[in-house]
Every structure is written in structure tokens, then in C-alpha cells.
Amino acid sequence: YFEGTPQELEIYKIFGRHEGPTMMILGGIQGDEPGGFLSADLYVDLALKRGNLIVVPRANFKSIILYDRGPDGDMNRKFDGVQDHDPDRDAVEILKNLMAESDILLNLHDGSGFFRPVWESDMANPSRYGQCIIADAEVYVHPPTGRVMHLGQEARQVADVINLDIAEEKYKFSFSNHDTLSKSTKHPEQRKSATYYALTKLGIPAYGIETSKQLPTLEMKILQHNLAVNAFMELYGIVPEQPRIHLDSPMLSYLVISVNGQLPVAVADGQTLLVAPGDTVEVVHVGANYDRGLSVDVLGLGSLNDVRVPLVINRPTVVIARRDNVKFGQVKLELLPPGQRASSPQLLALGPAEVVKADAGQLPGAAPAVEAAPGRSAEASPGAEPAGAAPDEPAFLLEVDGQPARLAAEKTLSVRRGARVKMVGLAGQFPSGTVMNLRGFVGKAGDVTGDDLGATADTARDMLPRFALARSPHFVYQLGAEDGPRILAKAYLALVSPKLKSVTLEVDGQGKVLSLGQRWGLKPGTKLTLKAVELEGELPLVAPRFTLGGRAFPADLPQVLTMPAIAVSLAVFSDGELAGKVVLAPLN
């Protein structure tokens, strides 16, 4: 969200191979507490055997950039209500929605001093925050659902596990009960916090994890946060899977190339580098989504691996990038006209970018310039003719999940994330040799020409986020009809993730519609029927899967369920992706 702004907000959802509870890990809500947000950052790349994680490493990126607790006010004091003009308003609302999808919240902080149940010194006393697990009550009963949460008991269990790995007594953890609901609490400000909101409004256990700002090293702070998160994961049955299996298709971002020993230039995949005959070219770095197993081959010169090998160029050639034995990108080397020599190498982009000098300040990872996607003034639906489209106007012929779709130039087609989109052809007047290119699509195996005609993109797995023209509210990718460096026509694909709108339940003949994140209290043993499920935006449920308390049940509706004696989530999955959940809680 808010990409390219000081409020940029990155959210990561990790789903386990087997169902289980969902834990939300929140870091960086206060920017001068790096132990918390650097620890949260480490969980982004975790793979899970069981359970799910929602990770927000940097909830308040602006405050982190400025190393300030809250340049627009303390964000952790805005969950009881936030003004419309507040710069943090949108982020706070997003975080609230994420909490509604979760079964437990951990808010990671670095606190001052060392919490002690009794006074020991100015830096070690009941008013300090460091080295403790904070909750708003010893035991909390959520009034709408009757759910009982033994916060103190769980926090002490976790502290005991953490302390096994902490040698020095003064750095050990303990439980701090802020008793926030009491009129006599010493921490009334916590009624505005994220954990208080999650506990009292959503009825889920919520804890603040505080390492001390006075710990001697940043590494120690991060490690102790990790110990706490890991212990809570174990307590809630969220099981990591190590080592992580990473099988993403390799993708070249750029090659860093030095010509005649000059300052290197970053050459993006598919671009052409112009050099003079006799120039010495050296590939000094491969920028890709993998770090190991990379090689480049300057065809006709050198060996199979020419990384950091100076080679003299006297004829046009191609530099092929490989990961292990898979070719995944290329850069062309072309010669300047005889007698012409540039003061520095030049780049000819195979796209809308102009020829640019290599010393013009390009940075590694820079991609050819693209235009921003236009506003979604018109959309096309699979199988429907876009408004205003005429048969002879430029258009892209597609199949979406096997259904034909004609997408007119400059229009946007919204499809579900995970849909299979086949590039069938072009309609309209285009010169011979025009290619059909979906930017960000990994492409057909071994093909680096940019021509995607006939290829089918799995929009959940084959699209590279860095090529998206927009990411909020949906990822938007450009589809182009291209003749060399010219874009003759373009349109846009918007990938819409499934989001639960409502589930319809029935008890004793009475219907109940629950929206995303809503809770409903029922007596244990109650028979209820799941009648219907609806996604937002009229998206269809694809390969639907349902779980109750992490246990799958048949997807054919209606289904009769039994209310268990504990609070459980009724989760809805579409094409393997969590669309959302509602919560059923036992009434005493």
C-alpha cells in the first residue's frame, strides 16, 4: 500500500501446508524501536508446515525513516479512533482489518529500562517496559462471545521458554499486566493501543513483546524478539518448515557491465548495449531473484561462465544469463557505426525508453521507463465486449480460464488472481513482426524475446510484482502490442485477490449473514448450516475449500456443522488462497 510514499506499507501473508491458527506479527509501529521491526522482517521469508502468518514488518515506515517514535503522533495511540485528516488513518484501518483475519496478535517493541514487579532502581522497576511480555489483563472474558483468554498464563509460559536461552539474570523476561480495563490502571493510554483494540473489539489474544533499549547490542534485541515469537508460534501450534523450498522461476533484473574499465552500467533484461569495435566488456554482477548458481555466457567468446571475465567485442553478440542450466534472460551487444565511438557505452532499451548514456546515473535494478496505468474508467469482463470497442479497433484477444475475452486498447480487464490468461492474438491493423508482450510475465520456457503470443500466464505464480504498474487496490500489469522499441497499443490486466464478503449461516431455520471478520456467539453443540458464501466484486469461488478451527470439511453446500466448545474460525479459501474468515465463539 502507498508505494513510493513515506507511508509505504508492506504486508506479507504466509500460508502453511496444513491448516492452523493465524498469527499477526506487527513491527515498526514506533520507528525508534529497531529490534522489533528488524525481527518481524525475518519472518517474511518463513515457510510454514502448519498455520498461517500475517507479517507487517514496518507499520509506520515514515517514523522508521526518521527514527522517530511518531512524527505524526504515536500511531499506537490511534486504534480507538483516528481523525480523517490524520496521515496515519488509512494505515490504522488496514491494520485493524488484518487483525480481524487473525487469531492472535504480537506487537513487537523496544522499551525503556527493565520491567521488574518490584522497585530495584530507576531503570528497573514496575514502570519500565523492557524485557517483558505485556497484556491488558490477567484473564479476559470477551463480552460479545464469552470467550475466556488466560493472557497471564500464556505470557508466563512463553517467558519461561525465552529465559532458557538467556544466561544473564538481569535480561530475563517476565509478565507485565497493565490491567488496562481497570479504572485504577496506571496505563490508561494503552486503551488506545493496537493490542487493546484486538483484545476488546475483536476478541483475540494480543501481546506486546518488549526488549530493552538498554540491551548492549541490536543483535541481542532481535534475537530475543525471535525467541518470543517462536515460543508463541509453538504455543499456538504454528509450525515452521525448514529449510524453505524456493522454486520460483529465475528472473533477470539486470546485468552490471563495465566497458573499457569505466564506471559500470546496469543493463536491464532485454536491453541492447551499444559499444565500439574493440571495446573490452566485463559482466561484473548478475542482478536476479537468486544469488547462487548464476552464470553468464557471452556467445562466441570466453567460456560457459564469463562473469568477471574481460572480453574484446568485435562483432554483435548476446550475453545469456543462466541459473544452473536454465536460461532466464539476455542482453544484446551491438556495435556502433564504423568510426563512431561514444565517450561512454550507450543503452538502447527494447521498450519506450530512449537511448541513454551509461553514465547518466542509472542504478542497478533500473528498468525501462513505463507509463502509469490510467484510471480504471472502463473495464471488460471475460467473454464480454468492452464498452466502446469496435471490431476494427486495436484489441487483445485473450482466454481467461478458457473463456474468450476481447480487451480493447487502453482498457482494463479485471480477473481473479490465479486465473489462467492465454494470449490468443491481436485484433486491428498491426505491422508484420508485432509481438504481444505481457510485462511481468515470466514467459514461455527458454523464451526471452518478449513475444508471449500463445502463452498462458498463471496469474498467481507467473507474474513478477516489480513490473506491476500499480499495486493498490490491485496489481495491474501492462499488455502491449510491440514493434521493436515501439509500443503500438497497450491495455491492462488487474489481478483481484479473492476477498470474503459474507457467509450465510442458518440455525433452527433462522438465517444469519456474517461479513468478513465478524463474530457470532453460539452455544456449544449447536447445529448450524453453512448455506452460502459470497466474495466481493462478484468473483467466483474457484476450487473452494472451507475449514472450521483449522479442520477441513466438504466444500459442497449446504453443510451441517457443530459448534465446538472453543472459539474457532470459519475460513474460506478460493483456488488455494485465503479469502477471509468469520469467527464462531461459544456462549456460556
Description:
There is one protein chain. 11% of the residues lie in helices and 38% in strands. The chain is mainly beta and 588 residues long. The strands form nine sheets. Strands 1, 2, 3, 4, 7, 10, 11 and 12 form an eight-stranded mixed beta sheet that branches. Strand 13 and strand 14 (265-268) form a beta hairpin. Helix 1 (34-42) packs across helix 6 and helix 4 crosses helix 6. The longest helix has 18 residues, at 218-235. The protein is globular. It starts with 11 loop residues before the first strand and ends with a strand.
In short:
With 588 residues, the chain is mainly β. The chain has six helices and 40 strands. About 7% of the residues have low confidence.
Total beta-strand segments: 40
Main sheet, how many strands, which sense, barrel? 8 strands, mixed
| Binned strand content | 35-45%
Gyration radius over CA: 28 Å
- The general outline is globular
Low-confidence stretches: 349-389
Number of separate helices = 6
What is the helix content?
Answer: 10-25%
Mean pLDDT: 86
- The termini sit apart by 41 Å
Features:
single chain, 588 residues, mainly beta, 8-stranded mixed sheet, 6-stranded mixed sheet, 11% helix, 38% strand
SSE diagram, text form:
Layout: E1 12-15, E2 18-26, H1 34-42, E3 48-56, H2 61-65, H3 89-100, E4 104-111, E5 114-115, E6 124-125, E7 132-135, E8 140-142, E9 147-149, H4 151-163, E10 174-177, H5 194-202, E11 206-212, H6 218-235, E12 239-240, E13 252-259, E14 265-268, E15 272-275, E16 279-288, E17 294-298, E18 311-313, E19 317-323, E20 326-335, E21 346-348, E22 356-357, E23 379-380, E24 395-400, E25 403-408, E26 412-416, E27 420-427, E28 435-438, E29 456-458, E30 475-483, E31 486-496, E32 500-507, E33 510-515, E34 519-522, E35 527-535, E36 545-548, E37 551-553, E38 559-562, E39 568-574, E40 577-586
Parallel strand pairs: 2-3, 2-4, 4-11, 5-6, 7-10, 15-20, 23-26, 26-31, 34-40
Antiparallel strand pairs: 1-3, 3-12, 7-11, 8-9, 13-14, 13-16, 15-21, 16-18, 17-19, 19-20, 21-22, 24-25, 24-27, 27-29, 28-30, 30-31, 32-33, 32-35, 35-38, 36-37, 36-39, 39-40
